[in-house]
Amino acid sequence: MTRKIFVNLPVKDLPVAKDFFEKLGFEINPDFSDDNAGCVVISDTIHVMLLTETLYRTFTPKEIADTATSGETILCLSADSREEVDRLVELALDSGGKPIGETQEAEGMYGRAFQDPDGHHWEVMYMDM
Predict the structure, then answer these.
(1) Would you tell me how many other CB atoms lie within 10 Å of the CB of residue 19?
(2) Which residue, 118, 97, 90, 125, is CA-closest to 8?
(3) Cα 28 from chain centre
(4) What percent of the chain has pLDDT over 90?
């Protein structure tokens, strides 16, 4: 059995969040999407569940992190080349994302980071093995 991961993220505006990820080239799986959730297909084994804050609160008694002042997690995606890192991050920035930090480059690794419209921290990393 191939293990899959479903990352659940709270979002303030579901249509905006879904549109952002579609602009990055990811598909929304309609079988797992409705007015309260959108399933972003990153790959065959990675899915991001965009959940309205109301739905997200039904899964945890904890407060939703204020991404403007708190770091909740860093989500890192691999890329096949430096050019793919730049392409995906530039798409994110052109689609409403915001840059985070400086370009990272050291010992065969190249990466850049951005925030999505809800302030979730994403990195795209190429590792030249």
Answers:
(1) 15
(2) 118
(3) 13
(4) 97
From the CB of residue 36, how many other CB atoms can be counted at a distance below 10 Å?
A: 14
The reported pLDDT for the residue numbered 52 is 98
Measured CA distances, 25 to 72, 89, 95, 104 (Å): 25, 12, 11, 23
Q: State residue 14's pLDDT score.
A: 98
Which is it for the CA torsion 10, 28, 20, 105, positive or negative?
positive
Write the single-letter amino acid at 103. Answer: T
- pLDDT at position 1, please? 82
